[in-house]
User: Fold this.
Amino acid sequence: MNFEVAPLPYAKDALEPVMKQETLEFHYEKHHKGYMTRLKSLIEGKPEADKSLVELIRSSSGGVFNNAAQVYNHTFYWDGMKPSGGGAPPAGDVADLINGLGGWEKFRTDFVAAGAARFGSGYVWLVLDGGKGKILDTPNAETPLTTGQVPLLTADVWEHAYYLDHRNNRIGFLEAFCDKLVNWEFVAKNLRSAK
Ligand SMILES: [Fe+2]
Assistant:
């Protein structure tokens, strides 16, 4: 595998004022790249190093799994945001999927509630599960890649994701994510790939 994290899909100040440049500098440069540095130290020169990141996540445990999954989850999180994003999805397959979950307002309420209810660190996800949309939350580095579901969107609810912007207000962070950051084109691309 390639031991470099993917570049951010936007400049570090592109999500201002919703998400501070300082947040991206710490979260991407220190946390995300830190997981890759630890993963590299665990597997470089070993047979696992020849696997893709997804293969590694699906076949490992312990520290290798935790760091590999965190590398994947963070890239997925970055790609699911964009400047001036969020709000209800435009008409199309994604809007149909969201309508299947009760519509945009209900989705927003349920997505925020799932992320808020996740005790400690983890992620809240929109996934495709048996062909239908589903909201779920996962602890720590866990990812739907290992449970047969197709990830469509995620929000990182580790405190490092929101503390510089929202302090301890995780709900405020998740509402801002839904209203101003979600990249629905990314969700649509993942949905197309799953079919
Ligand atoms: Fe994170």
